[in-house]
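Issue 218. Parser rejects a valid record. Input:
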Amino acid sequence: MEQSIQKKLSVGENSWVAVDVYGDPDAPGLVVVPGAMSDAHAWRHVARAVDAWPSVAVVNRRGRAPSGPLTDRYSMRSEVEDLGVVLDELGSVKTLFGWSYGALIALLATNDRPMRQVIAYEPVMRPFGGHALPDLKVAAEKADWGRCVEIVNRQIVGLSAAHVEALRADHDGWATLCRLSEPLYAETAVINTAPVPDALARQADRVDLVIGQHNRGAAPYGTSFEDVRQRIAHARVHELPNQGHLGHIHAPAELGRLLNDLAAG
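Output the parser choked on:
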């Protein structure tokens, strides 16, 4: 389905979030919550591949254009409340899908709000990335966004220097990564300081956890996935074949088909 409208919603604290809606804007459908180093635009191909819901609404979380700033009072509660504003605006949403940090936000939101289904692709939780916080803080204070991209890929994800240089060689792609890294320190700090309850998605009728085949049992994403899974007693686990953390980039059609298959009847 194609994008039909973009909604701009005030979330208080002099900030706002933009929501890209695909399909019928008047029909409640699937709500997508991207994570760090990502925005709504990066999920357009997945949204177009989904047809099990009458609409797909992709949240552009605060801290990335065209949404508003994080603000000085930014916290995990800010993210959960922002998502609540989106859900109230869309009305009668039955399914949430979150990726990475966005998956953690979706799972936390459904501790407070009933939801028929939550789908979480490789959610992360503390101590994810905590060891890199000092270096991220220095880079953010200097507005050295290229350094932030290096830190997340080398120190957190564990990619090689050669891989990072290959990313840098794609000038447009590197510029996008630098732009998306601007809220990275604040988001990583929140992940590592916000309390995480012993149980997640307590008010979700059904929870589907998705992991890329390449990350099963491997740090950092596979190990964080297991930490989250232990907090959701009723979760079903699904594997995205031949993929890692970036299934929405490398295999959007396959991820879209998986989401269609997981649509609760």
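Fixed in the parser; the record now loads. DSSP finds eleven helices and eight strands in the chain.
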